[in-house]
Design a protein that fits this description.
6 helices; single chain; alpha+beta; Ubiquitin-like (UB roll)
Length: about 170
């Protein structure tokens, strides 16, 4: 039995040490917003925040977690979609198929938390997730819009109804 802190709640799970965190999140905890894309940490569809850092959960073994680790999934970014990144994504109609978008949003939220005013190069360097539909220009525009929204008071680290990476 392993105890893990996901979205501010401690869960007890049964899993082999080499089980990818993604499968625990999806199959045991029932949080299906985090997607399986490639299984080798290349595409980023499985991106979550681990202690505030973007982490590809498909290749992160549950046995590597420490009891103090804090995991945040797309479900806790802002349940009411008030996060600046979620607002920008919707306003600019970023997704086409949408499959990669939870990972893209998690990567963008982490970027803006560490760099609230990113340049195009900063965005390109940080946003390494793959979008099969090729919406990279809209993703970049949405990150810029989210940065502007954050300057106007929209949250970039969570909302009152959902924990932030700092709170969980």
């Amino acid at each position: 039995m392993v105890k893990i802190n996901v979205n501010g709640k401690v869960h007890s799970v049964e899993a082999e040490a080499d089980t990818p965190l993604l499968w625990v999140i999806r199959e045991q905890l029932g949080m299906t917003g985090t997607k399986y894309g490639c299984g080798v940490a290349q595409c980023g569809a499985c991106s979550i925040h681990l202690n505030g850092q973007v982490t590809r959960s498909c290749s992160y073994p549950i046995g590597a977690l420490k009891p103090t680790d804090k995991i945040v999934t797309i479900e806790a970014l802002a349940a009411n979609r008030s996060h600046a990144v979620q607002q920008a994504w919707a306003a600019l109609d970023v997704p086409q198929c949408g499959y990669c978008q939870s990972g893209q949003i998690m990567a963008a939220a982490a970027l803006l938390k560490s760099n609230p005013n990113p340049s195009d190069k900063d965005i390109d360097d940080a946003m390494t997730n793959i979008c099969r539909c090729g919406t990279y220009q809209r993703i970049r525009a949405a990150v810029h819009m989210a940065a502007d929204l954050a300057k106007k008071g929209r949250p970039v680290a969570g909302t009152a109804d959902s924990p932030t990476a700092d709170q969980v």
